[in-house]
Amino acid sequence: MKKHTSAMNTLVCITHWCLQCDSHHPKHQVSGAPALPGGEVDELICPTCNSYDIEELQEVSDAQ
Predict the structure, then answer these.
(1) Average pLDDT, stretch 25-43?
(2) Whole-prediction pTM value?
(3) How far apart are CA 14 and CA 28, in angstroms?
(4) What is the pLDDT of residue 14?
(5) Does residue 7 fall inside a structural domain?
(6) Among candidates 21, 8, 12, which has minimal Cα distance to 51?
(7) DSSP string for 2-60
(8) Diameter of the chain by CA atoms?
(9) Number of Cβ atoms within 10 Å of the Cβ of 44
(10) Higher pLDDT, residue 40 or 6
(11) CB-count burial class (<10 Å; 0-12, 13-18, 19+) for 18
(12) Mean pLDDT of the chain
């Protein structure tokens, strides 16, 4: 029996938006900027244009 795969099996949640190039990315594609020794990584980098102007998208209860 042949197993079918559907688009639903490969659905990836978009979690981040780049304000510079207006692209949207899942969390695993948005990388953290290199931190200084002893520092935390809190800056994200767009995988398309390398901008630091990345916003995390928030789910809204009244989305249409």
Answers:
(1) 78
(2) 0.64
(3) 10
(4) 86
(5) no
(6) 21
(7) PPP--GGGG-----EEETTT--EE-GGGSEEPPPPTT-----EE-TTT--S-EEE----
(8) 55
(9) 20
(10) 40
(11) buried
(12) 79
Q: How far apart are CA 42 and CA 57, in angstroms?
A: 16
What is the domain count for the chain?
1
How would residue 32 be classed by pLDDT, with cut points 50, 70 and 90? confident
CA-nearest of 28, 22, 27, 26 to 49 is 22
- Domain span at residue 21 reads 14-32+43-59
> Which of the two residues, 3 and 21, has the higher pLDDT score?
21
**Per-residue confidence (pLDDT) for residue 12, from 0 to 100:** 76
Domain presence at residue 8: no
Say how far apart CA 24 and CA 2 lie, in whole Å.
Answer: 34
- 2: in domain: no
